[in-house]
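Reviewers of the previous submission asked for a worked example of the structure-prediction workflow described in the proposal, so we include one complete record here. The input consisted solely of the amino acid sequence. No template or homolog information was supplied to the procedure at any stage.
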Amino acid sequence: MDFTPEIKDKLNQLQEKYTAMGQDMASYLDGLLYADFLTYWDYIHLDTLLSLQSPKTPFPDEEIFIMYHQITELYFKLALHECKQIAEHENLTVEFFTARVKRINAYFNALTTSFEVMVDGMEKEQFLKFRMSLLPASGFQSGQYRMIEICATDFIRLVDKSKREELSNAGIEEQFENIYWKFGATELASGKQTLTLKQFIKKYAAQFLQLAKDRSLTNFSALYHQLQLSGADVSALADELRKLDLYVNVEWPLSHYKSAVRYLEKDPVDVAATGGTNWQKYLPPRFQKRIFYPFLWTSEQMEEWGKGWVLSVLKTLKNKD
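From that input alone, the workflow returned the following structure tokens.
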């Protein structure tokens, strides 16, 4: 068989590559000769992936519950992958920033539009039974979701709204003590920290604090202002950041709230969430008023945060795609 000029050129490039590393190209070609062809299932470790569901009860719908949460965490990992690219880019441009935030919005769009799986995809009777075997584990303990929040905004925006003004000039450690989600993981009866929260803090607190420090100048809010001050046109970026604000702080919590009402609301006393959290006050966006980018919203929009207007705004922003 005669080698084409293209193949000869690639062989020469390979020879140069391995020579520069002090390696013998022929040995690597032997390795390529002996290696099996790659398969789809081996490449993505499909058999391992499909074996990662371990229900604690015999109720069939528990497996749905597990798989959907695993899918959610994979989407969060995708989002964090984009967050890291943005924060660590050596010569960040508006175009790169906007494109990566648009990817994150696509992930959250997939999550919010698929959440009907959690709302209508399980029998209420099954859920209320198998959930008792999951205590004190809770979706509240998603560390990746908290990391996305830290990457997305100035850390003070994650402080409980009643403490933000008071702690605006405090250190990150003190702000972390008053982060909003700690107030959403209190026991309904005593007001004390739940075991769910104690477990979560023990596992992730150091990691969260380090990330907050690492992103103090490279979170999305800080980077937006840096690009804006440089004179760059940030209008398209602003649109994507508004979408992100709505997805993370309104649409995603509202999806969970809808699910909680479906499974946990019970007259006259609501059923506590698996972690014992006060979900009725924690999930609705109108109570938390978490807003990553207040400089991108009007006073009226922020006052009405979490109410009906957000749906029309999100629809308008989507139509721009």
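The chain has a mean pLDDT of 88. We consider this example representative of the routine output the project will generate in years two and three.
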